[in-house]
Amino acid sequence: MGMRYTTFGRTGLRVPELVLGAMTFGEQGGVGAPLEECRRILDAYAEAGGNMIDTAINYRGGASEEILGQIIGERDRFVLATKYTVTRDAADPNGGGNHRRNLRLSLETSLRRLRTDHVDVYWVHIWDRHTPIEETMRALDDAVSAGKVLYVGISDAPAWVVSRANTLAEWRGWTPFAGLQVPYSLVNRDAERELLPMAEAYGMAVTAWSPLGGGILTGKYDKSEMSGKFRLAPDALSDRDRAIAQAVRNVADEIGATSAQVALAWTRRRKGVLPILGARSEAQIRDNLGCLQINLTDEQAETLEAATGFQKGFPADFISQTTPWVLGAAAVDMYP
């Protein structure tokens, strides 16, 4: 099975079912990939049919964008996405945030590093509660009008903020958010409460970061003897984390796949969700791409989900429980 494509929300932009995350591109600030390894990672992803790359102004202190600017040969072949919000200068009160000034200066910085005159998708990285969402949406719309940004999205924000932003965009004729970026994996299903239903209602594409739960779902923490550097100390894993990782390993052994492939296959089962692959080596990206060959059965997915003990909580569970009481006989037909 090859790479399939979908549209980026309610736009005509074609994006793949797996996104390449460039947070690992560069060796600054911890374990990452050197330039030549980044080139091999990108080549392997492109060979599989991938065409969307996700980075941010602050990844690896800017090295991620700079490396991408060097190794992307055919710029128009890729859907290039970057983000702003995180400060460019911690000593500057206006160095970060979602206000117009930081947007403008961040965008110019990213374009220069990426060696391009536009980005295909520009993400608001994190909700800035001190900047009115009206200012952010209008500033983004101006960037679109200037041709420096083609589409916009938002990451790491409450559902009500995103909903208000897109409602304002609809009423005022501004460019709406076409994409939402959230953490989503078997160890973190919080987005199912409000964010994923909201994205589906607005027709937004969802890119999922940390689909391997910070490495918990790769199986590498199951080894009794571990070498190398890991994002988490083995004793930092909870009993719940270990139970989920074991459930993933059991399914992987059953179907002859790796744990990472099973975890990614679960995430991509969700309608409209595109996992972001963050690899530090060519071997890792090729292993992750193997999830394209895996289609979990409903029974396997239910087994994995049972291990998470996840509950949506209030109000979702309460609304579901009271549906027969509220709608009576109609509930049978309307909400099977």
From TrEMBL:
It holds the Pfam family Aldo_ket_red. The keyword Oxidoreductase applies. Residues 17-306 form the NADP-dependent oxidoreductase domain. Keywords: Oxidoreductase. CDD domains: AKR_AKR9A_9B (cd19080). The keyword Oxidoreductase applies. SUPFAM superfamilies: NAD(P)-linked oxidoreductase. This is Aldo/keto reductase.
